[in-house]
Design a protein that fits this description.
Layout: H1 2-17, H2 39-58, H3 64-67, E1 70-75, H4 80-103, H5 112-131, H6 136-139, H7 143-152, H8 167-182, H9 189-210, H10 212-218, H11 221-229, E2 235-238, E3 241-245, H12 261-277, H13 281-286, H14 301-330, H15 346-353, H16 358-385, H17 410-443, H18 446-472
Antiparallel strand pairs: 1-3, 2-3
Helix pairs in contact: 2-17, 2-18, 4-5, 4-9, 5-11, 5-16, 8-12, 8-14, 9-10, 12-14, 12-16, 14-18, 16-17, 17-18
């Protein structure tokens, strides 16, 4: 009986959400309802991705380097000491933010640690890293330590084996995702500061014991995340020279062979997708929670953890199955004249095609956090106007009040939702281009590549619909 009432309530809310009423939003809670007739826009987005797949069939064979060209801008590299200085300053800034987490205000919308970590770092900096240039090369708080530690620990006592790959980072990414989505109070300043201090101690100890290079490449999750998002950026250094090109051009240089990277990349996408699904009325009904009377995060810790793990397992399994199905469709018994007639190993397929998912992961991250960034970014500006809480007016924002009024007007909501949808569609089209070029290279011809890529193309089309549906679905919590 209670379940029936929940279903009726959910149906009524979904019906109301189709009406042109004002939207609701909450800054840090991610509650958001896009009250627009989004069906036609979703259909157009799916059609665009499908047409891009068909268009590549009629184009002559082109490598990624030709589909996504780049050009040299010359020697514009900054001296290494300047990056080290920037890294040291960001480390000191991190230490100050952690101290404010312990001693500053308890309000997460005013505490600089919460705003600095969740809004500036976790929401915004991956967007700059993936859409503009290698920001992490300047803001990594570990870079200034890596050189001296490498000189002191030439033979680290617990050197990480190369064959371990990034599997430790995969585990830490899962733990960080659990903290982000399932912890009852991830934006509590003191709680976040305690986690941050612990992470700094563990990272520095790991760099000392295992060597800074190996630890940062194989374990430290933010370095691994930023390194991969950075491969999508238009601007990139090549030695002392700088090149600029289409987003994703750096992936033309091939996939990295380090173990665990395909799963790490797929987890970035799976976690981002579940982060959106975790807030929908559909998910809340699945776990038996009334979206109109959300009991709080502490009541849904275990369902969220189970859902997060299940979502990533399903995505990795489905992606692998699509690659295997496509490979079997073109496989034939090997003979003496050709080495390309047999099927390819699953591990090789994952190493080739998993990096093509990076544009999806960045697009979902950007689209998901875009509404929150519009609101929480205003709180960041207010905090920067008076960073020490001494009544300063550095940005001239005295008397400024954070507004969410743009969520209450149909036209501004349309612009916001279409911007999110465009980001999702662009990410999928870029992923389709990368997957096509890699398939042609792996299978030796357009016809075999197109046949082998059909299951993956279906995956891309369905995931486009899923992403746009997650943007449009009513959310609570």
């Amino acid at each position: 009986m209670a379940r029936g009432r929940r279903l009726v309530a959910t149906a009524m809310i979904c019906a109301v959400s189709l009406l042109p009423l004002p939207a609701a939003a909450h800054a840090t809670g991610q509650s958001f309802i896009a009250l627009l007739p989004t069906g036609p826009y979703m259909a157009v987005g799916v059609i665009i991705v499908a047409l891009s797949i068909m268009l590549l069939w009629f184009l002559p064979h082109r490598s990624v380097a030709r589909l996504l060209p780049s050009r040299d801008l010359g020697r514009i590299a900054a001296p290494p000491w300047l990056r080290s200085l920037s890294s040291c300053l960001f480390f000191l800034l991190l230490c100050w933010l952690l101290s404010r987490g312990f001693s500053g205000t308890r309000d997460p919308l005013e505490n600089p640690l919460v705003l600095g970590f969740w809004v500036v770092f976790w929401m915004a900096s991956p967007m700059v890293q993936g859409f503009v240039f290698d920001l992490w090369g300047w803001m990594s708080p570990w870079r200034w330590l890596a050189g001296p530690l490498a000189a002191v620990t030439a033979r680290p006592p617990l050197a990480l084996p190369h064959r371990l790959g990034v599997w430790p980072a995969v585990l830490l990414l899962l733990m960080f995702s659990m903290f982000t989505l399932a912890d009852p109070a991830p934006d509590d300043p003191a709680r976040l500061a305690a986690v941050g201090v612990t992470y700094i101690v563990v990272t520095i100890a790991g760099m000392v014991l295992c060597g800074p290079g190996r630890w940062l490449r194989q374990v430290e999750i933010f370095s691994v995340v930023m390194a991969h998002f950075g491969r999508l950026a238009p601007l990139a250094r090549r030695g002392r020279r700088v090149r600029v090109g289409w987003p994703g051009w750096q992936l033309a240089h091939g996939a990295r062979a380090c173990r665990g990277i395909p799963v790490f990349i797929l987890m970035l996408l799976g976690t981002g997708s579940f982060d959106g699904f975790n807030e929908t009325f559909v998910w809340l009904d699945m776990i038996g929670v009334n979206p109109l009377a959300f009991p709080g995060r502490s009541a849904v810790v275990m369902p969220v953890i189970a859902g997060l793990i299940a979502a990533n397992l399903i995505l990795v399994g489905l992606f692998t199955a699509m690659l295997h199905a496509g490979d079997r469709a073109v496989a034939a018994p090997r003979d003496q004249t050709s080495e390309r007639t047999g099927s390819l190993r699953t591990g090789y397929l994952l190493s080739v095609f998993a990096p093509t998912i990076l544009p999806l992961a960045l697009a979902y991250h950007t689209a998901h956090y875009f509404p929150s960034l519009l609101v929480d970014g205003q709180y960041v500006l207010v905090a920067l106007n008076d960073p020490l809480g001494q009544g300063a007016n550095l940005l001239g924002l005295d008397g400024f009040h954070v507004t969410t009024g743009f969520f209450k007007h149909r036209e501004s909501m349309r612009v916001i939702w279409l911007s999110q949808a465009a980001i999702i569609v662009f990410g999928h089209v870029l992923a389709v281009i990368l997957a096509h070029a890699n398939a042609v290279q792996a299978y030796g011809g357009i016809r075999r590549a197109f046949t082998a890529g059909m299951p993956l193309a279906l995956f891309m089309i369905l995931y486009t619909w899923l992403g746009l549906w997650l943007l449009a679905a009513p959310k609570g919590g």
